[in-house]
Amino acid sequence: MLATSSVRARKLTDSIATVVLWVMASSIIVMLAAFIAYMGFLGGHAISWQFLAGVPKETTAGGGIGPEIYNSFYILLLTLVFTVPIATAAGVYLQEYAKPGAFRNIVQFSAESLATIPSIVMGLFGLLVFVYLFKWKFSAIGGALTLTLLNLPALMRVTQEALSSVPDSLREASMGLGGTKWQTITRVVLPSAIGRMTTGIVLVAGRIFGETAALIFTAGLSVPFNNPYDLNPFRPAETLAVHLWYTHSESIVPDVDRIGNGSALVLLIMVLLFNVAARLLGRQLTRRFTGRAS
Known about the structure:
It is a multi-pass membrane protein. It comes from Vulcanimicrobium alpinum. The chain is mainly alpha-helical. It folds into 2 domains: 44 residues; 244 residues, MetI-like (MetI-like fold, Orthogonal Bundle), CATH 1.10.3720. Helices cover 75% and strands 0% of the residues. It has 11 helices and no strands. The longest helix has 42 residues. It starts with a helix and ends with a helix. The model has no long low-confidence stretch (mean pLDDT 87).
């Protein structure tokens, strides 16, 4: 009788725990859906081709966010050009070449310390170095280099974890067939880890796209008046996230709420697309190179 009661009590506890955990997990979906719906309600009426492609205005209504969207992708591309090779090379070295010792510990400690620096502090560093010391003034290249320093640790860690997920048996098989260590890394290990690495890169790209504090002090709060789509990296490049902050804090245009809410909705949609793309692209590359889903 006692045994039967004990079994029933355990089953009841298990059922309660299952329901609680399911509710907690479902609440995340509900909160995200509610947030997206609310932002859509606030900014949906502002979305139009004129708004997405038009240039911002300083004092009159009807401005757009075209140059800000362009600058966001421009700085994102510059940042990834600097970040991906350095972070990938550092991750490969630490995971595949570095042996336990003082140098490896110093590199790991430096990366972890760099990852804990607030973005606004990194922005002040970029202001002092790239704006004042190098005399680049507010520029896209200064913002991109600041974001490179900010995101290097995360992408390096992603590379390490992706490489560590590759079974050692694949490395041993490659070595057993006469492959060198470099051939094993480039032809076996990296292709096997490409899915996870790509997912990490795209997720970091989403973080870069939405960064604000670091770019306020480095990329500036304006766009070139004559040529807002200039490819010159040494010109001011206000991004969409910075424009959103500026609109709600200092802008004097009459339709500030329309511009702010519309910008927030566009930024939210872009970041969500980065997250979806990370999942889909990572799985596709994993299937292609390894024949299995991630």
